[in-house]
């Protein structure tokens, strides 16, 4: 049980800006094992964002404005960790002429045109989807989207080769198959507890498809994974799930 709690604290420290001291510094020894707790922390992030959105709606804030403020709160809570990855891969994949230049661009902290556009598209898609989801489904939908979006990352990390000889992804290490299966299983369980079985399964399929597409692009563009690739995959999956659920749950 202590190991699970240690993994939870490590996952919280990595995936959010919440102060969560741990004894091993920025990259603790249990970081790879802590991947299994990514969907649990994701679910908690989704719950906080959902309750914020719902609270704003109940206070009389228009749905679009409530969704925008809730998404802003999500970025503050997580430090826009995955949004940064999405922007970096868009800039690198779109602006680089070869593998080396793409990786160099992805390492540049400045935001380029491709990154700005993809963030705008992603935010607009999540904004409109969240605004369209009825009150009773806001929190469950965000819990499932955030859990599944992070639950796919360990499997991607396990199966993709490294694109660089250094960097966050390589330094962090790859989870084993058991950890990846545990993360995926917890993410699916959370989705099933949050949504109807059909919406949960469709959401899981969309998360898997999103991860596959991003992984395929990463292999073609830069030869494998970086931390940005994993972060971008989370954003693609989260956005796609929210759009799916809006289409299935929105009232006519």
Automatic annotation (TrEMBL):
Localization of this protein: Cell membrane
Q: Which reaction does it catalyse?
A: alpha-ribazole + adenosylcob(III)inamide-GDP = adenosylcob(III)alamin + GMP + H(+); alpha-ribazole 5'-phosphate + adenosylcob(III)inamide-GDP = adenosylcob(III)alamin 5'-phosphate + GMP + H(+)
State any single GO MF term.
cobalamin 5'-phosphate synthase activity
Q: In which pathway does it act?
A: Cofactor biosynthesis; adenosylcobalamin biosynthesis; adenosylcobalamin from cob(II)yrinate a,c-diamide: step 7/7
Return the EC number. Answer: 2.7.8.26
Primary site of residence: membrane
The protein's required cofactor(s) are namely: Mg(2+)
Q: Name one GO cellular component term.
A: plasma membrane
The regions listed as transmembrane in this protein's record are: 37-58, 64-81, 111-131, 177-195, 201-219
Show the Pfam families listed in the entry: CobS (PF02654)
Instruction: From the Swiss-Prot or TrEMBL record, give the protein name.
Output: Adenosylcobinamide-GDP ribazoletransferase
Query: What species does this protein belong to?
Result: Bradyrhizobium valentinum
* Protein encoded by which gene: cobS
């Amino acid at each position: 049980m202590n190991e699970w709690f240690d993994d939870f604290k490590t996952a919280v420290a990595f995936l959010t800006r919440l102060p969560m001291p741990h004894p091993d510094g920025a990259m603790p020894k249990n970081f790879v094992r802590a991947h299994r707790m990514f969907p649990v922390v994701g679910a908690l992030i989704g719950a906080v964002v959902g309750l914020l959105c719902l609270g704003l709606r109940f206070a009389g804030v228009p749905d679009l404005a409530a969704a925008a403020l809730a998404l802003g709160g999500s970025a503050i809570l997580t430090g826009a960790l995955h949004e940064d990855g999405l922007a970096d891969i868009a800039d690198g994949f779109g602006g680089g002429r070869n593998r080396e230049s793409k990786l160099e661009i992805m390492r540049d902290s400045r935001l380029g045109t491709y990154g700005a556009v993809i963030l705008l598209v992603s935010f607009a898609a999540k904004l409109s989807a969240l605004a369209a989801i009825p009150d009773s489904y806001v929190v469950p939908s965000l819990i499932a989207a955030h859990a599944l979006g992070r639950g796919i990352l360990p499997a991607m990390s396990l199966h993709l080769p490294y694109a660089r000889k250094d960097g966050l992804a390589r330094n962090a290490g790859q989870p084993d198959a058991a950890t990846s299966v545990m993360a995926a299983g917890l993410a699916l369980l959370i989705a099933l507890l949050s949504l109807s079985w059909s919406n949960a399964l469709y959401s899981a399929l969309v998360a898997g498809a999103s991860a596959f597409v991003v992984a395929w692009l990463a292999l073609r563009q830069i030869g494998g994974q970086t931390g940005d690739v994993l972060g971008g995959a989370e954003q693609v999956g989260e956005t796609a799930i929210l759009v799916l659920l809006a289409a299935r749950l929105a009232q006519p």
